[in-house]
Design a protein that fits this description.
The complex is a heterodimer. Chain A is an alpha+beta fold. Chain A has a 5-stranded antiparallel β-sheet with strand order 1-2-4-5-3, with helices on both faces. Chain A has a 5-stranded antiparallel β-sheet with strand order 6-7-9-10-8, with helices on both faces. In chain A, strands 11-12 form a two-stranded antiparallel sheet. In chain A, a hairpin with a 5-residue loop joins strand 4 and strand 5. Chain B has 2 domains: 190 residues; 153 residues, Nutrient germinant receptor protein C, domain 3 (GMP Synthetase, Chain A, domain 3). In chain B, 30% of the residues lie in helices and 31% in strands. The chains are: A alpha+beta, B alpha/beta.
Chain lengths: 501, 354
């Protein structure tokens, strides 16, 4: 810490050599640091540039910086006149170097920070400042369709790992002076860029302040993915439910910003965080709004149904088969018992066995190399399912239930909610196996009592179901026509409630 | 899993033979033919509960009754034992539903559950399906559930129960058994033909449709069949000079769906009216005869006259109610029938116009 403060206090002198020593002391041991000393005709003095060659665009350095400095006189004859008049060297540099981004720093710490992020530091004899030239350039992935959130209808662009590209993607679609960004560096060791984005004319300033406060409290070596940020700033880390939304989709982020929410972009990951979030929001998919409202409403209701099925179906089966056989219609009961005849395990073991198999297949499917993945999925799913039934280890109805549950969890637009449902499904199954339907009700009550007090940045997680504001219901279970949704979600307490007239 | 129960009388006095029809669930996993999908276990005992408990001595599957569909009571038991006593355990035990169907078998009840069915289905399940057919045919009464039976017996109300006979192969719903409300015993039978008419006299919520009336054309002696669609029955209680009498108004509407006579011309209203008249006469004749049998021979009010009297003339009802079935047999009853043909289907005449 003392070294850090010492460094930040160190500032440049007018002497090129001492400046060079100061910088090389810190980063000189790296082979990719380039120091170039030469006489500038344009400036009429000795100049020195320092950069890291793998982070800069060599063309820019060669053409716009070195050539301009060396041959400046030939190209711009009037410049030399100005030089002779003895104007400020900084202003002269501004005219010589044809780069958009240039700024001056005095201290070593700032300078090194920028060199490490790809800028070129330029020193001239006698100037007590370093001029930083925006020469950063590196390879980024091209913009592709997000794999986890594909749509049938809607934009196919997704975020990439590069923060600047991501911000530019947002900027391009929100042409608004109120589009605001707050920059942070996260990571004591890595100093990654993090940007909080919001629309200052819509978003509740208290919300922005709270997000800022939580971000500022982060003190960690590195945050390699926005999941780190999410886990560090969420309200209740002990809850299975995600309290911050993440997405790769640009349209989702824009829609959230316009609702009055805050987006957090981190360098190095395509996943953008959106806060606050409520449970119904996590079940909304962009397509709900792009398709006509009938389709959107029906599909959304189906999704709620699938959440319920994903949570309760296996446990309901366990409870009915092992405790409440009388509740099953007789003919179904007969076929269930005959299909279970010969299965040596109680239902709960049978269910756990199949559920775990499915989880294994799912996990293995992610890890496997792509071309093999599908084959293994088919082999695993079909062969294990089929042979397990034939071997009499599990009953066919159990296979149907487990696979339906697994499929229904994929229909949930938010992967993190699907995981939460998956975890709770096991809780429900155990509860059902111990106390039947009564146990399920108890477990459900526990989940309810937890979820009711859960909050995301001051917004009630399940609030949309109980809020007194009926206008929020227009976009909860149903998706009413767009002309009816004139106001932003009330619970976000946006500055400006009206969305359309 | 037990789907059917048959109750019979044992050899010793007061002994009950209980046949439990279990679903053979092992059948589901085996693909060999010839494996029966049910098996019966017979136990004896003095009381129902005791008899049921004896089942556990004979099989590893202890009986589970929540899916019980039918209870078949043998003729002998029904005629000699108080049914209220025999059904007591059924009504008390939580595993048994109040919706279980009660059927009285002609002869031994056990034979019903052991009968060979061509479909190779479980006899009890097959029987349960047959009890629901009141919408299709009028030759059986509406089913009686265990719960309804309990209510009626407590109320000392006589009622009709579906009855079944075993055939060489299969089963047959054969009219109704008449249970006396006072004695709570089987007192007689109605044949399926009689039941066809008795159904027009019973006020029932469900099963108003279905059933046919067949008459012969006056001239050609060819059958004409009328398909009932709706029955409306009303009982009018009247007292003249202190003499109680009932008037039953039976109104039925339906379709003329079969007519064998060549001279038929349903496009003519006159023709339809003549057929209606014929049908009305037949309906009146037959219902009166069934009513007479119930009144004079069996002396049981299964048609709900008591309910109407209670509503219309409570003081009289109060006087008569202790011995209602006997009182009922003395009251004069008149039947007023009306048949209305709504339409005649897709064909109205057979011969070309001349």
């Amino acid at each position: 810490m003392s070294k850090q403060s010492q460094l930040s206090e160190q500032s440049f002198t007018g002497n090129l050599l001492s400046n060079r020593d100061m910088i090389m002391n810190r980063i000189g041991h790296n082979s990719d640091v380039v120091v170039r000393d030469f006489y500038s005709d344009a400036m009429g003095t000795q100049v020195m540039i320092i950069y890291i060659h793998c982070l800069v665009d060599k063309g820019t350095i060669n053409n716009q910086v070195i050539r301009a400095l060396q041959q400046g006189q030939a190209h711009t004859p009037h410049q030399s006149a100005a030089a002779d008049q003895g104007t400020n060297p900084k202003e002269r540099l501004q005219q010589i170097i044809q780069l958009g981004r240039m700024n001056a720093v005095r201290t070593l710490a700032e300078c090194i920070d920028e060199i490490l992020s790809g800028q070129t530091a330029l020193f001239t004899e006698g100037m007590e400042e370093a001029i930083l030239l925006g020469t950063c350039s590196w390879k980024t992935r091209s913009i592709e369709e997000p794999v986890t959130e594909s749509v049938v209808r809607g934009p196919r662009e997704g975020f990439v790992e590069d923060l600047e590209t991501n911000v530019s993607l947002l900027r391009r679609r929100i042409r608004n002076p109120d589009f605001s960004m707050i920059n942070y560096h996260i990571g004591r060791q890595t100093r990654r860029n993090l940007v909080i984005v919001y629309l200052s004319n819509i978003t509740n300033p208290l919300l922005v302040k709270e997000v800022q406060r939580r971000i500022e409290l982060i003190d960690i070596d590195d945050a390699p993915e926005s999941g780190f940020i999410e886990q560090l700033i969420e309200d209740n880390p002990w809850s299975p439910f995600p309290q911050i939304q993440n997405t790769e989709r640009i349209d989702k982020v824009i829609a959230s910003l316009l609702e009055g929410r805050v987006a957090i972009l981190l360098d190095g990951t395509p996943f953008v965080l959106l806060a606050p979030v409520t449970f119904p929001m996590l079940l909304q998919a962009p397509e709900d709004y792009y398709d006509r409202w009938f389709v959107g409403s029906l599909i959304r209701m189906l999704r709620y149904l699938l959440v319920i099925a994903g949570l309760f179906l296996p446990s309901l089966y366990i409870a009915l088969v092992s405790y409440h056989q009388g509740l099953i219609p007789s003919k179904l009961a007969i076929s269930i018992t005959s299909s279970r005849e010969g299965v040596p395990f109680p239902t709960i073991i049978e269910a756990l066995l199949m559920e775990i198999t499915i989880e294994v297949l799912r996990e293995a499917g992610i890890r496997l190399p792509k071309p093999i993945g599908q084959a293994v999925g088919i082999v695993g799913g079909l062969v294990i399912g089929q042979s397990a039934v034939q071997a009499g280890i599990v009953s066919p109805i159990m296979v149907i239930i487990v696979s339906f549950t697994a499929i229904s969890s994929f229909a949930i637009p938010s992967y993190s909610v699907a995981i939460a449902i998956r975890i709770l499904r096991f809780t429900m199954m155990v509860a059902a196996s111990v106390l039947g339907l009564y146990g399920m009700v108890l477990a459900l009550l526990l989940i309810c009592s937890h979820v009711v007090k859960l909050k995301s940045f001051g917004v009630n997680y399940m609030g949309a179901f109980v809020h007194s504001k009926s206008s929020d219901w227009k976009d909860t279970f149903l998706r009413l026509p767009i002309f009816m949704m004139k106001r932003r979600p009330h619970f976000l307490r946006a500055k400006n409630q009206k969305r359309q007239s | 899993m037990v789907v059917g129960l048959a109750i019979d009388k044992g050899k010793k006095k007061g002994e009950i033979i209980l046949t439990n029809q279990f679903v053979n669930t092992i059948e589901g996993t085996k693909e060999e033919p010839g494996v029966s999908n049910y098996y019966n276990i017979k136990t004896t005992g003095g009381a129902m509960m005791e008899t049921v408990k004896n089942v556990s001595n004979l099989t590893d599957n202890s009986p589970y009754y929540t899916h019980l569909k039918v209870i078949v009571i043998g003729e002998e038991v029904a005629a000699t034992t108080n049914l209220m006593e025999i059904t007591n355990w059924f009504l008390r035990h939580h595993e048994l539903r109040r919706t279980i169907q009660i059927i009285i078998a002609k002869g031994k009840a056990e034979k019903i559950l052991t009968s060979k069915l061509e479909k190779r289905t479980i006899p009890a399940v097959e029987l349960w399906g047959m009890t629901q057919n009141i919408r299709e045919t009028k030759k059986m009464p509406r089913f009686v559930t265990l719960g309804e039976m309990g209510i009626k017996m407590t109320d000392e109300m006589s009622f009709l129960v579906q009855s079944v006979v075993p055939l060489q192969q299969g089963l047959k719903m054969a009219g109704a058994a008449v249970i006396s409300g006072k004695e709570r015993k089987l007192i007689g039978w109605l044949t399926d033909e009689e039941m066809n008419w008795a159904n027009f006299l019973v006020n029932q919520r469900k099963g108003k449709e279905g059933g046919v009336i067949k008459v012969l054309d006056e001239k050609t002696k060819k059958p004409i069949v009328y398909n009932n669609q709706n029955i409306k029955r009303k009982i009018v209680v009247s007292r003249k000079n202190g003499d109680l009498s009932f008037l039953v108004k039976v109104y039925t509407e339906g379709y003329l769906l079969e007519d064998w006579s060549l001279t038929e011309n349903s496009f003519e209203n006159n023709y339809i009216r003549t057929v209606e008249k014929q049908l009305t006469a037949e309906l009146k004749k037959q219902t009166t005869s069934v009513l007479n049998k119930m009144q004079k021979k069996l002396k049981a009010d299964v048609f709900g006259f008591r309910t109407q009297l209670r509503i219309d003339d409570y003081p009289t009802w109060k006087k008569l109610k202790t011995n209602w079935d006997t009182e009922f047999s003395k009251i004069p009853i008149e039947v007023q029938a009306e048949v209305k043909i709504l339409e005649f289907g897709g064909k109205g005449n057979k011969l070309p116009k001349r």
